[in-house]
Amino acid sequence: MTDDRKSAIALIAGSLGGMLTMAIHPSAAAAVLTPDQVDHLALASAFAHTLAMVSFLVLFLGAFGLTRRLMLHEVSGRPDRLAFAALCVYGFAEVALMLAAAVSGFIVPGILRHTVYDDAARAPQWHIVVDAVFQFNQAFARIYSVTASASILLWSASALRHGGLGRGIAIYGCIVAPLLILLIGVGHLRPNLHGMALIVLAHAIWFVISGAQLLKAPTEAVLPQA
Q1: Residue range 81-93: average pLDDT?
Q2: Residue 81 backbone zone (phi > 0: left; psi -120 to 50: alpha; other: beta)
Q3: What is the pLDDT of residue 28?
Q4: Which whole-number Å values give the CA distances from 197 to 48, 114, 122, in the listed order?
Q5: Is 47 exposed, middle or buried (0-12, 13-18, 19+ CB in 10 A)?
Q6: Which pLDDT value is given to residue 219?
Q7: Neighbours of 143 (CB within 10 A)
Q8: Rounded CA gap, 21 and 217, in Å?
């Protein structure tokens, strides 16, 4: 199996895992939760966010192969390193995602347990702590959403300049990625459950189609010399 094929499978599998994560992501709809509901929420949240971290790690592995493919098409002697820059930015995004998933999947449920198992008089204090800690999740989710979108923009710009991906998906990335960044920046797109679902879907479309194109890409064994 070629590196392109392995990378393609990683891109597609990681993207599908991300969408599955959003589909099964739990939400605490009730204002007051029972101990059983908190335990179920903690278990479901741990599973969903573990799946998220594994899926996006696989996606990151696929991003290495995607970057390699795009760098193969850079003009020898005049490389602009857009693809390499995209990979670096995406690595930064992955760190933010890991922190957001850890907060939402493990830290917040652990604090919620105190609200139902500790003294009832202290529950309001624990709810304040939950609200405060959740802001860390939202901050890291925003960082991920913006930087991952910036990565897609850079990969797409590289593909438009040098090839390596179809022109259609490159144009999609050059339009959708900055649009997401703008909407997040002005506050119209928030990284709550529904907002993140939209962001993950928009990114997944780009990664899945890019992965499908890598599956069909001809083998190129040697990178051009800079």
Answers
A1: 95
A2: left
A3: 62
A4: 13, 29, 34
A5: middle
A6: 62
A7: 19
A8: 29
- What are the tens digits of pLDDT across the range 53-62? 999 999 999 9
Is residue 128 pLDDT above 70, yes or no? yes
222 is written with which tokens? 């040697």
Residues written for the chain:
226
Q: How far, rounded to the nearest angstrom, does the alpha carbon of residue 136 sit from its chain's CA centroid?
A: 16
The Cα 208–Cα 13 span in angstroms is 8
> Residue 175 corresponds to which amino acid?
I
Where along the chain do its domains lie?
3-215
Can you tell me whether residue 152 is helix, strand or coil? helix
Structure tokens at 13: 């599998």
Which of the four pLDDT bands, split at 50, 70 and 90, describes residue 99?
very high
**pLDDT band at 220, cuts 50/70/90?**
low
Dihedral over Cα of 190, 191, 193, 194: its sign: positive
d(CA 185, CA 201): 19
